[in-house]
Amino acid sequence: MFAPSIAIPQVGRRPMPRSSRKVAVLVAQVGLFAVFAVAGTVFFGLAIASPVAVPAAHRQGIALSASDLATAQHLGSMWWLFAAGAILSFGATLVTIGNLMRNLGAPSGE
Q: What sign has the CA pseudo-torsion 28, 31, 33, 35?
């Protein structure tokens, strides 16, 4: 009829210890924190670049071509998009900080 099955051990695959898993999650969260912080800073810089950069270039005596001015005007009209990206990135940074603090404060015997 039916023969009892024999458990075959998996070779080369061990379960990851809890401490290694926790360290891997913490490293990933720190990486996410850095990525979101840099992205938010870049988006914030793009949001304020056009109104600040063109007058600053004129004061410094830097000659700007018509295509440079057109590009600055086009990107400057999308300031709200960059501002939204900065807000979302900084919000994600705060959420990541909260998760990181929760994971650091969690007892190791979960």
A: negative
Quick check: is 79 in a domain?
Answer: yes
> What pLDDT, in 10s, does the model give residues 3-32?
666 766 666 666 667 788 888 888 999 999
82 in a domain, yes or no?
Answer: yes
| N-to-C CA span, the chain | 44
Q: How confident is the model at residue 91 (pLDDT cuts 50, 70, 90)?
A: very high
Residue 86, domain member (yes or no): yes
* Predicted structure pTM score: 0.69
* 52 three-state secondary structure: helix
The CA–CA distances, whole Å, from 26 to 19, 20, 40, 43 equal 10, 10, 21, 26
The DSSP secondary-structure symbol of 78 reads T
Q: What is the dihedral of CA 46, 48, 53, 59, to 10 degrees?
A: -170
In a domain, 85, yes or no: yes
How many structural domains comprise the chain?
A: 1
